[in-house]
Design brief:
The complex is a heterodimer of chains A (167) and B (511).
Chain A (H helix, E strand, L loop, with lengths): L24 H27 L8 H22 L1 E4 L3 E6 L4 E7 L3 E8 L1 H5 L2 E8 L6 E8 H19 L1
Antiparallel strand pairs in A: 1-2, 2-3, 4-5, 5-6
Helix pairs in contact in A: 1-2
Chain B lengths: L11 E2 L3 H25 L10 H21 L2 E4 L3 E6 L4 E7 L5 E5 L2 H5 L2 E7 L8 E7 H15 L17 E5 L2 H10 L4 H13 L10 H9 L3 H5 L2 H31 L3 E5 L2 E6 L5 E5 L4 E7 L10 E7 L10 E6 L1 H10 L11 E3 L2 H25 L5 H6 L1 H24 L1 E4 L3 E6 L5 E6 L5 E6 L1 H6 L1 E8 L2 E9 H17 L8
Antiparallel strand pairs in B: 1-2, 2-3, 3-4, 5-6, 6-7, 8-9, 9-10, 10-11, 12-13, 12-18, 13-14, 15-16, 16-17, 17-18, 19-20, 20-21
The chains are: A alpha+beta (167), B alpha+beta (511).
Amino acid sequence: MVEGDGDGAGDWAGDGDALTPLHPNYVKSIRLASLVGALPFVVGALALEMADRLPRGAFLLPVLLVAAYAVLRVPLRRYHARGFQMGADRLRVVRGLLFRSDTVVPFGRVQHIDVHQGPIERAYGLATLVLHTAGNHNASVALPGLGHGDALAMREEIRAHVKRETM
Amino acid sequence: MSGEAGAPDGEWRRTSPLGYLVRAIMALRNLLFPAAAMLFGTNALRGGALWVFPTIAGMILLSALFSWIAWRHFRYRIGESDIRVERGLLHRTARSVPYERIQDVSLEQKLVPRLFGMVEARFETGAGGKEELRIGFVTEAEGAALRETVRVHKSGAVPVGAAEAVPEEESRVLFSMDPRRLATFGLFEFSLVVFAVLAGAVQQFDFLLPFDFWDFRGWIGLLAGPGHWLEELGMAAQALGAAIALFLLALVGLVTGLGRTVLRDYGFLLEETPKGLRRRRGLLTRSDTVMPIHRVQALKVTTGILRRRFGWHGLSVVSLAQDAKSASHVVVPFAKMAEIAPVVEVAGFALPGAESDWHRCSPRYNLDRALLSAAVPLLCALGLLLAAPFVEGALRFGLALPVAGLVALAGFVALRERFLWLHQRHAIDGRLIYLRHGWLAPRLEIASRVKLQSVEIVQGPIARRRGYAALNFGVAGGTLAMHGIPLDSARAIRRAVLGSIAEVDFSRLPG
């Protein structure tokens, strides 16, 4: 399911250790989300196809190809482009295919922590960890695609760190 | 029912059922407009469609049901070290706010909750944006107890200054403006805003005028008729008229600028007090602001195109998000650098000195930007040239002017990038980050390394091929970004800055 992909995230902004990959179920969850997003277009193409104005397949074929690419290929690439690195006092989040970003939030700057679960995430046992900082830029840094248990554990660890620093 | 607020750790609670009632009533307000629209739209009041009332009743029931679900799935826990809130049925969010991060607890009472004696408790954390924690709606007693709990838990930590009167003694004047300085400042604040206001007013109130202001034919007719003498006066008189008009325009601009400046900055006084920087200013509405020094995150030294030639600069501070509402943070509006330096010192920063190690951004970055920004006008010019053969003879020469203009524009934007490359730079020392931006009115940003919140390296498709990146720093109440930094130096800067951030916890930032 989740095999290597040429331009994987690896260590592109190289800060020592390699990135931890996300939960394998994350690929499935983005696929499902893209499928839901692509459905209206496929239905629309089908409707146009019924109208019989252009040669058979003129609408359906390109739409199906694009949809297949978006549902099968893109989620895999996105999965490989994402990753995180839990340091002793900081969390690093890497994401993006075309526009790559690599964010580091020191635990000492975390204001509060969310663990968020959408319906699809719940179906796959995933969760999104969101760290809120006081900065205007990157006010909230989201890390999707974690196992729910892992996300809770990470929250507790960051929580404990915030506590230890201040007490 | 909500229990005692002092209850021990680990007990999940819902807000009281009365809270549900308040929620449901508040949600009903959202139905008011659709319901009214339906009533009028279908003429139900005059015995129109009968299905309208059942539909509205159904909407009310649904709204009540949704409120109930929201209430049922909202629970909170006053823990030993944090407050936790869980909410949502489909989209579930669990939020944890450590006590150390809570700056303030405010209790808000809108009209409906007030009737039932309920409050909404808000926990302000200084997080950017609207992402604070809310618990609504709880009884007044519970709200007060929540606030007390947070106070008790926080008391061990750094006390956040309670509202005390500003002591009059021990204050030292840092900067003040005499009328002469104020007048000079006003001259540089040249503004034509009054014309925009006039135009707006004419548009709003044109029905009051005895003629149609926008009737250009009428104006031309007026010129041709009674105003005909204007044309007969000859070139010299017309030129004189134009000069007078320009002079009047300049005069109005100067007077407006002067007036606005005097109104805003009359009697400007900046003092150093034990509570922070205290600024008083204004002629008619006198404002008195205190900016605690430990809340200052970064400084900005700004200037203008013209005033820069005379060595005039301004200084403003970037402060924590909550303060952002209280408008401008200018601490020195108009001064020489020698006067600004001591204020910078007091704020805990320093101006760049001779020993500052300045770096330019990657030349590739500005080259790419020059090519990209010049490409747009050049493509337009090319389009015009290609269209030329299809245009009638006389018009063809008319095309030469826009083409030349577009080519000149392309050259200009490309040259500008070259200039920016020469003048934009950054420097980092053990404590501070300096950034210089801009072309005609350059500005200098000074940020403290330990007060940054996060660091991000971003690369677009072009940047990745060309080996440079942008560095975005999270600053409370402002932004700070370096563009076009070679990837290796970007990483090095990030490593260094993160090192100094991680050493100091947010709640222990120097102050």
